[in-house]
Write a structure and sequence with these properties.
It comes from Luedemannella helvata. Belongs to the amidase family. GatA subfamily. About 40% of the residues lie in helices and about 15% in strands. It is α/β, with parallel strands linked by helices. Helix 9 (about 280-295) links the parallel strand 7 and strand 8. It is globular, with a radius of gyration of 21 Å. It starts with 8 loop residues before the first helix and ends in an 11-residue tail after the last helix. The chain binds glutamine (GLN). Glutamine binds near residues 130, 175, 207 and 318.
Length: about 500
């Protein structure tokens, strides 16, 4: 019998359409798998089983009644816990939001529900999406299905691990500095960051508003494109949403699957040649570039001199925006309230709530950001970082005059053991060395599995110009057709 948890979303769509699997069967198979393995993996913070079964039955009924359904109707999905889901706990993996049930759905949830997809539950993450390992979740880390003693990446470690552990065929992540792509890379799955403004931020709990971008996570490039097509497109409720047609990413992925890249120019970023990367990661990357050349692609070396300043600029801009965005967690409006015994001032209650409710990394970011924005320092730190951001954007613009896409490893190192980078924040921040430039520019980028180093997955990053999301899907699918997908070892459940 077909094990529905091992199928891609594209396969599930075909089985559901032909009637040899029902949405209820598919949903139950995934809920059973979650019950079986999530005690080990801890990808989920909340499993919404009853609602999922209900929704699946509704879809089966609609299909039986001959209703016109979208391609992903009846396909299950897991949602990063930073996305507002009506009536369903949304914690951002923080104690400060424990017990909060949003009174509304994020725009992308409306689209996912409207497409007939079945939400299985909410996935674990670093608190408020700040981190690269999921170790900063207030509810305990997620374990990498490839090696349970290692990190699944972050901040969206739960969304990626759920895919690698076959708990869900698709999931949603958010990428501010790499939180979709880096977890994808270290779990051997696909993660795509759309063009900034291409997917709505309405109902995404804000971390750094000028960078935050929701996007699809999947086990294949085509599956990521199918989900991208559901969630992308203009939303008047998000003032930075782009009012332009969404490129046909599904057609691009299917074109890429044919394995022909004749005439496509790949740019190798000179400044990233070996910069900080493990030798095994660089080896897998170079082999993958060779594989793309065999498919007809041409390689051009390009210089992006300011990319090396992206990390420090990001670690001023993102904390600055976070210090402002997280001011709303004051013990009055949402979730936790500490010390409200009638004898304390409002200010004392706010301060006690924030002291108890935020974890160490979130506090570090708020402090850095508050400092960088304070009068007298604003120009020297935040203002300077914004100028660097402009220079990075110019690097991208001039690179894309010469090449169609830029390529690099997604992350300098494979999944690391728990605890090995938490004592030095800078070591953790380095995980995003290659992903952050794209966020500062606003373009799309995808991570596709490209082999193993020391038995652990390596990710290949493809960066494209803004609004040319289709290009990265085409090249990504071509790479996947050449290299195949990665299959993790079976989980030991004893
Ligand atoms: N790891 C980066 C950070 O800690 C990126 C996080 C993200 O993309 N949400 O800020």
């Amino acid at each position: 019998m077909t094990d529905a948890t091992r199928l891609t979303a594209a396969d599930l769509s075909r089985h559901l359409g032909s009637g040899d699997l029902s949405a209820e069967e598919v949903t139950r198979a995934h809920l059973d798998r979650i019950a079986e393995v999530d005690g080990k993996v801890h990808a989920f913070l909340h499993v919404d089983g009853d609602n999922a079964i209900q929704k699946a039955r509704d879809i089966d009924r609609a299909r039986a009644a001959g209703e016109e359904l979208g391609p992903l109707a009846g396909v299950p999905i897991a949602i990063k816990d930073v996305i507002a889901t009506k009536g369903v706990p949304t914690t951002c993996a923080s104690k400060i939001l424990e017990g909060w049930r949003p009174p509304y759905d994020a725009t992308l949830m409306e689209r996912i529900n409207g497409a007939g997809m079945v939400m299985l539950g909410k996935t674990n993450m670093d608190e408020f999406a700040m981190g690269s390992s999921t170790e900063y979740s207030a509810y305990g880390p997620t374990n990498n299905p490839w090696d349970l003693g290692r990190i699944p990446g972050g901040s969206g470690g739960g969304s990626a691990a759920a895919l690698a552990a076959y708990e869900a065929p698709l999931s949603i992540g958010t990428d501010t500095g790499g939180s979709i792509r880096q977890p994808g890379a270290v779990t051997g799955t696909v993660g795509a960051k759309p063009t900034y403004g291409g997917t709505s931020r309405y109902g995404l709990v804000a971390f750094s508003s000028s960078l935050d971008t929701p996007g699809p996570c999947a086990r294949t490039v085509e599956d990521a494109a199918l989900l991208h097509a559901v969630i992308a497109g203009h939303d008047p409720r998000d003032s930075t949403s782009i009012d332009a047609p969404v490129p046909d990413v599904v057609a691009a992925a299917r074109q890429g699957k044919t394995g022909d890249l004749t005439g496509v120019k790949l740019g190798l970023v000179k400044e990233f040649a070996g910069e900080g990367a493990e030798p095994g990661v660089m080896a897998a990357f170079r082999d993958s570039v060779d594989a793309l050349v065999k498919l007809g692609a041409e390689v051009v070396e390009v210089s992006c001199p300011h990319f090396l300043y992206a990390l420090p600029a990001y670690y001023l801009i993102a904390p600055s925006e976070c210090s402002s965005n997280l001011a709303r967690f004051d013990g009055v409006r949402y979730g936790l309230r500490v010390g409200d015994d009638g004898n304390r001032s409002l200010e004392e209650v706010m301060s006690l709530t924030r002291e108890a409710g935020f974890g160490p990394e979130v506090k570090r970011r708020i402090i850095i950001g508050t400092y960088a924005l304070s009068s007298g320092y604003y120009d020297a730190y935040y203002g300077q970082a914004q100028k660097v951001r402009t220079l990075i954007t110019r690097d991208f613009t001039s690179a894309f005059e010469k090449v169609d896409v830029l390529v690099s490893p997604t992350t300098p190192f494979v999944a690391f053991p728990f605890g090995s980078r938490t004592s030095d924040p800078y070591q953790m921040y380095l995980a995003d060395l290659y992903t952050i430039p794209t966020n500062l520019y606003g373009g799309p980028a995808i991570s596709v599995p490209c082999g193993l180093s020391e038995g652990l997955p390596v990710g290949f990053q493809i960066m494209a110009p803004t609004l040319a999301d289709d290009r990265m899907y085409r090249v990504g699918a071509a790479l996947e057709s050449a290299l195949g997908t990665l299959t993790p070892p079976e989980l030991e459940l004893s």
